[in-house]
Amino acid sequence: MMKMATTQELTLERDVSRAIELLKGLQRSGEVPTQKLIALQKVLESDFFNAVREVYEHVYETVDIQGNPEVRANATAKATVAAFAASEGHAHPRVVELPKTDEGLGFNVMGGKEQNSPIYISRIIPGGVADRHGGLKRGDQLLSVNGVSVEGEQHEKAVELLKSAHGNVKLVVRYTPKVLEEMEARFDRQRQARRRQVSAQ
């Protein structure tokens, strides 16, 4: 029932497009200072604004909140702000939707709570679904799978969520390649240390 209400009520992309058209009309009329209207239009058309809208829509569709639309909207707004606040100093979160096929999703993940690191996209399989889609990058941190957060979770939880997903799979990610490089370097040092211990025995 809530899902049906969601599709009827949430029309942000259409509403933003309509607002931009209205701004253009006001610019032509000369009733409002053009400079201010152009500045507002640039905000509505910016990549950052579209990223916020996409994450908001994704959270709104998947957030598990009972109550009236205002309660749901407030919870969604808080979760969206939290996602962007957590990425301060990094690229902003993005929503990537991939079709799940018999060949899987076409990428590998590494990291997890047990390794004291976030969960990352470590490899995009050449010719696979993710590679053909083009939305994911090696170095993307995986934040959620179909609305279920994997931040601070075990590696196995992310793997199970990805394996059990069907149809179109919605991922929230953010690009932080330097952290992945540091994590891989740490794992490499640990492997080398283990090899030295084995050879010393």
Q: What is the element string, with H for helices and E for strands?
A: HHHHHEEEHEEHEH
Cα-atom radius of gyration: 21 Å
Number of helical elements:
8
- Profile the largest sheet: 4 strands, antiparallel
Largest sheet strand order: 1-6-4-5
First-last Cα distance = 64 Å
Helix percent reads: 55-70%
- Contiguous uncertain segments of 5+ residues: 1-8
Beta-strand content bin: 15-25%
Task: Write a structural description.
This protein has helices at residues 2-9, 12-29, 34-45, 47-62, 69-86, 129-133, 155-164, 177-200; strands at 94-99, 107-112, 117-124, 140-145, 148-149, 168-175. The protein has 201 residues and is of the alpha+beta class. It has a 4-stranded antiparallel β-sheet with strand order 1-6-4-5, sandwiched between helices. Strands 2-3 form a two-stranded antiparallel sheet. β4 and β5 form a beta hairpin.
Short synopsis of the structure:
This protein has 201 residues and is α+β, with helices and mostly antiparallel strands. The protein has helices at residues 2-9, 12-29, 34-45, 47-62, 69-86, 129-133, 155-164, 177-200; strands at residues 94-99, 107-112, 117-124, 140-145, 148-149, 168-175. The strands form two sheets. The protein has a four-stranded antiparallel β-sheet, sandwiched between helices. A two-stranded antiparallel ribbon has the order 2-3.
Key attributes of the depicted protein:
201 residues; elongated; four-stranded antiparallel sheet; alpha+beta
Secondary structure elements and pairings:
Layout: H1 2-9, H2 12-29, H3 34-45, H4 47-62, H5 69-86, E1 94-99, E2 107-112, E3 117-124, H6 129-133, E4 140-145, E5 148-149, H7 155-164, E6 168-175, H8 177-200
Antiparallel strand pairs: 1-6, 2-3, 4-5, 4-6
Helix pairs in contact: 2-3, 4-5
